[in-house]
From TrEMBL:
Protein name from the UniProt record: Uncharacterized protein
Family annotation (Pfam families): DUF1405
InterPro entries tied to this protein: DUF1405
Domain of life of the source: Bacteria
Organism: Aneurinibacillus soli
């Protein structure tokens, strides 16, 4: 218990925040590079904002961490960053495992992606104790995430799936929408839980 309390206290310590900022920032840059080919293949160009889901989420979370270094909180930013980081962190791990179950051969990159995306999901939960999110902010994120899901799976601009998983594209789509609702509910529930304890 002592170690856990010490760790929680470090979450907003300057050295820890800057470490997380660097990790998230570098991960975001790598993510946008990783999406380079898909972004180039996405037309019309205005749809490209809906393509790089994970690096956009980690970029938003980097900004949240930066606001904490300044002693500030921006609830709408926290809501977008936390919900999308959890959602796409879990989504990526799930899709990689599902692809492997369908016969995709996992490489070191798959394991690296599972670790990094798992980290996105975990950090969004760890920092929930500090969020200043209200229900209306969750509502804003709900509109964005569900619109993103709709466009991803009706216009086929979702992140590229393993070839073995492509025949199950529609199942992935339904699971993604379900994950959006879970992510929205979980983040808001955690915020209310921590708020009730203060």
């Amino acid at each position: 218990m002592f170690l856990w309390n010490w760790f929680v206290h470090q979450l907003r310590a300057p050295w820890f925040l800057w470490t997380m900022i660097v990790i998230n920032g570098l991960g975001s840059v790598y993510g946008f590079i990783w999406y380079g080919d898909q972004l180039a293949d996405t037309h019309p160009a205005w749809l490209r904002i809906f393509v790089p889901d994970s690096p956009t989420a980690s970029t938003l979370f980097t900004l949240v961490l930066l606001t904490y270094t300044l002693g500030r909180s921006i609830p709408a930013l926290e809501a977008f960053a936390s919900v999308t980081s959890f959602k796409y962190g879990v989504w990526a791990v799930g899709v990689i495992i599902a692809g492997a179950a369908c016969g995709d051969t996992l490489s070191w990159q798959h394991y690296m992606l599972m670790i990094s995306h798992g980290g996105m999901a975990v950090e969004s939960l760890l920092y929930a104790r500090f969020y200043t999110i209200r229900l209306r902010h969750i509502g804003y994120v709900a509109i964005w995430t569900l619109l993103n899901d709709l466009l991803d799976y009706t216009l086929d601009i979702h992140p590229w799936l393993a070839e073995q998983l492509e025949p199950y594209d529609h199942i992935v789509g339904f699971a993604t929408v379900g994950l959006s609702f879970v992510s929205l509910a979980l983040i808001y529930s955690l915020v209310r839980f921590y708020r009730a304890r203060t």
